[in-house]
Every structure is written in C-alpha cells, then in structure tokens.
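Sequence only, no structure available. Ideas?
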Amino acid sequence: MKSTTKKILTLIVAMMLIVALAVTFAACDSSTNTTTETAEQTEDSNTPPTPPEGGQPNGTPPEGMTPPNGGFPGQQGGAQPGQQGGFPGVQGGSDASASTVTTTAVDTSALEATIESFDFDVEFDDETSYEEHDVVEVDLSTLEDNYTITSSGNYVFRGETEYQVVLKSSNKKTSVHIWLEDATLDSIVMDAESKKLTTVITLVGDNELTGVKSSADNDTKGTLYLKGDALINGNGNLTITSGEDKNGVHCTGKLVIEDATLTVNSGKHGVRGNDAVVVKGATLNITCLKDGVQNDNEVDYDDILEYDDTTNDKSLDVTFRYIYIDDANITIVSGDDGINAATLLYINSGNINITTNGGAPARITETSSDNADGKGLKAGSLEYAVSDDLLATELEKGDRADTGEDDEEGVNIVELTNAEYYAIVIKGGNITINANDDAIHSDGNLFIGGGTFNLTSGDDGVHAEDVLKITNGVFVINNCYEGIEAAKLEISGGDVTLTAQDDGLNAADGSNAQMGYVNQNCYLIISGGTIRINAQGDGIDSNNAVYISGGQVYVDGPTNGGNSALDSEAGIVIDGGTVVAVGAVGMVEYPASGSAQNVICYQSTTTLAAGTTVTVKDASGTTVVEFTTAKTAQSVIVSSPSLGKDATYTLYVNGTSVGEVTLSSTISYLGTQQGGQPGGQPGGQPSGQPGGQQPGGRR
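Reply:
I predicted one. Tokens follow.
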C-alpha cells in the first residue's frame, strides 16, 4: 500500500471515529433504545460479508474476557455494527473459507505444459576446426582497405589492422564461416545493400573489435553487425567496443553464442538478436548504456501465435523473439535493463550477475520506486507498431490496446493485453541482481521452478503482471520497495527471505484500488515452502483473499499502525501450514473464522521489543511454535497443524506466561483486543459504533 493512500485512510478513519462518538452521545441523551443500521453495499454491488457466528452484537461481552476501554471491536468492520452503548461483537475473522478462495484461481496447467514444449536446440553447424576445410587465410596487417567477403566460404583472419571486414551478399543462401585467430580489427559488419546470410564466427585465442570506423558509420547498427542468423563459438575470447548509439553485437536474426567468451563495452545495447539470443556454455561480460542482452521489442501478435482453424485454439510460437540461457556465465552492468526479451526469457542454468542503472538507491521510498528505471530480468513486453490507418483495424482484433506512445519513426505502438503463456521461465542458476527498478519483471506470467536468487531492487524484487508461480528455489531479497508481487501469486515451494520497505507479498493488479473493493482478478495462495518476511508495510497483502494450506510462513510486519502483518479484502483462510505473524495493532487483521486450522491471536498491552521470543506450549509443556521478533511488535498471530481443537495452550513472552487458552473455536484470543480488523475490514469502534472500511493490498 502506498504511504500517501495510508495517510488519507488514517484521516478518514479518524473522522469516522469522531462522527461515531458524536452519534453515540446523541443517542444516549435522546433515548435508551438501541438502533440497528443497515450496511450499504460497496462499489460494484459488493455486499459486505456476513459476520461469523459467535459475535455478541447485543451488548454482551465475550465469555471470560474483560472489555478494553470503549468496548470490544465489532464484527466485519462495521458490516454488522454492534448496538449503541454496549459491547460490539468479539473479534473474529471473516466467514471466508477455502471454497471462496479456490474458485478465483485460474488453471495454470496449460501454462506449465508449455514450459516443457520449448525447443532451443542450436541449429547451426558448431564445428570449430578449419583443418579439414579449404580456407582463405588473411594477414590483417597487410590490408590497405576494408576486406570484403562476397561469397560463401571459410576465412581465417590473423594479425592487426584498423580496417573492417565487410560482408556483402546478393544471395540469401550465402553461408560464411570466419575464424578469428588472435586478430585485432575495427569491426565485422554487413554492407548496407546486402541480403541476409548465415554467419559463423569461431574464436581462437584473444581477439578484438575496436569499433572506431563502425561507430561513425550511420548504416552500421553495431561493431559486430550481422544480417540473418549467426553463431559465435570456439574457446577463444573477443573484446568488442562500440561508440555512442551503436550496439556491441547486433544480429537481425537468431544469434547463438556457444562456449565463447565475449567482453562488450557499448554505447547502446550490449548484445542484441532481433529474433532470438541463445547463450549456451558461454561467458558474457557486458558494460553498456542501455540493455545488456536484448530482443527487438516490436512484435506482431499474429507472428508469435499459431492458430488451429478447427478448434480455434492458439499456441505460442517461440521460434523467434526469445532469449534462452543455459550453463552460461553472464555479468552485466547496464544503464537500462539487464536482460530484456520481447516475448520469452528462459533461464535453464548458469551464473548471472546484473547491476542496472547504478543499482537500488541507498534509501528506498515510494517516490524513488515510482521513478525507478532499469530492470534486471525483463520479458513479455509484446509491443508492435502500426500506422494510423491500420490502428483501428488492429484494435478490433481484440487482445490489443493503444499505448498512446509512438516508436522512433512516430508510428503508433500497440501492446498485447492477454498473452496466455509464461513470459519468464527460470528453472535454475545462480542469479544476483542489483536493480534500480524491479529485479525480475514479467509483463505477463512468470514461472520459477529452481535456482538461487540474491536480489536487491529499487522497486519490486519479483513482479508479474498476471500469474506468478514459484515451486522451488532459494530467494534472498535483501532490500526492495515491495517483495514479490503479482495479480495472481502462487507459492508452493522454495525458500524465501525478504526485506521490504512496503508490502512483502502482494496480490494486486493496479486496478480498482478502492477501499473495501474485492478484486476478483487477484488472489494469493501459499501451499508450501518456507517464507520469511520483514516488511514495513503489510507483510502479506491481497486485494482479494489469502489462502494458506501448507508451508511455513513467518512475518515480521509493520511497526506502524497504518499497516498489518496480514491484510486482505476477502479474508485470510488458514487450512494448513505454520503461520506466525507479528506487527502493530492499529490495522491488524485476523484470519477468517472459516479456516480449517486453529489460530491463536494475542495482543500485548505493551510494545514487545525487537528480539522478543514468543512461544506456544501445549498442556504437557512441549513447544508447539516458537518465534523471535526482528523488530518491535504488539500483535501476535499463530497457527499450526499441532494446535488441536479443545486442547489448552499457554503463550509465553520471553519465557513468561501471558495467558492460557482452550481452543474451543477456530479463532482464539489472548490479551487486550484492540483495533482488530477481521475479514479485511476494520472492527467496530468503541461504544458500539460501526467501523470504517480498510483497503487491502494496494500497488
């Protein structure tokens, strides 16, 4: 939730308290009879949820509990206000249950199936020896002008020169194999009038392209500029330098880099392959002012989807516009994005270290996150340009939206709004990113099934516009504005440790950020893994529901009362797993009464210091759950499969008992209950007045 919104909400709640107290005093002066107000419907006809059973709306305090000053908070945030002058209902979660959460989830099996269908085989002849071939051998030191290749053949270059090798072909079937053997030259470029051809460059020893002439050539897009498909292989090295507004490597077709080592210093993009970039077993060291490794971002949707005329089904064609990385070592320092794929970024394995736009700022704030630029890993932009006279026709095809922006030639840019595939797939690797903007960002869906991640971000640690699914992997998000964010967030495995200046986990899509609005496009599901969250905003936040059925979740939530360790719009359902959430009490939300697993909620009358150990023990003295706070807290929520119904448990704070409770209902309370926000809505106000509405996770 953005801090500006929270300040407004705090003011609104304060005003509502004043009005509520005024109404109470007026009612006490005029009559002793109680009145019942009817809750109005929220935006888009969303009726406030029915309060769970067990509340005390008729002024009777909960059994065995002494009310705090002003009375107990009411059920469901004022959806069912308590009677004036009495005790509003006891705090309890909303009546949300597992069924109300799972019905909002999408079936991602088809998306997952596409992961295994991708084919990234290298289609080039990757031979590295020229011993068995007829070759043309060139001593570069003897050149007095550029060396031009006009026909298919095998060429070996040695020595040093200030001139270029120019490829010129009038036949698309032309195939050229170049060996650079301890060679230094200005550049290897295509002639402006040349057709596309297939090029293989094999590196032997140490080689260099200095890029002086190519940087001054307006027809040249890079120091190594190739039209058509190209392969760079061999066990040698190549250092490439390009000037302002020139790429280090630019290939108009599919670019494959296998085994070789490239060091690129570029005034524009480091390595660009318009159709695809494949890096297998290679080493890339890139310093550039724009993107490190990039695809062409202007993509026609019809070009990347294949249609079945019989069934009208559509499937993704990833024969171009993708980046694939396997067993590679990549280091990038870029002024803009680190790795930017047009449709798909697939990382199978390797070591990747990226710093973008100077990295994350030392102090991350809402303002700095809004102004961040330079993502670490990015994919799925799916934008393409159309002329004015075709714009309306293109938009009528559906799944398209006018961005309101133009390309470099002033042509309208259209983006795809519904691409049903994973734009980023990460199956493994060691990935370290320090990004000024999001560390990992998908404009569509994102799947992570393995790998080790060390992330620092000026905005989100991991972000997807739609589905974000994590099944495995080890994540350390050192610092960020928001930790892991998507409209639909599913975590079923892995180990996540994150520190966020705002929300830790956030299910939001940036739309309908109204107070009390339940966004049916969003959900947050945790079914496995270990998650440790340290958040200054909401620890876990959803614009719809939160469903936890497994795993281990530990939340050090906010120290300010404007946020909550757990926050939702439609209820927090705990059906399994271990959950410990601590934080401030001002906006605390408790799990739903429809949860299948027992929950103990405790509010301390005093602030618990950082380093406080909270322990739950059963009647025999056996420890069920233990947690040490990372910062100050006052509210504690604990749930575990070991908490049995009708069993008695004792809660200890630093070894001292603060209360004993018998779990006769799903949600049980200890301590002084103040300001609880069950079910995603604020509780009733003191003296029985209805509470206001609390928004859930905001982007």
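Confidence is low (pLDDT under 50) at residues 1-92, 674-699.
Hope that gets you unstuck.
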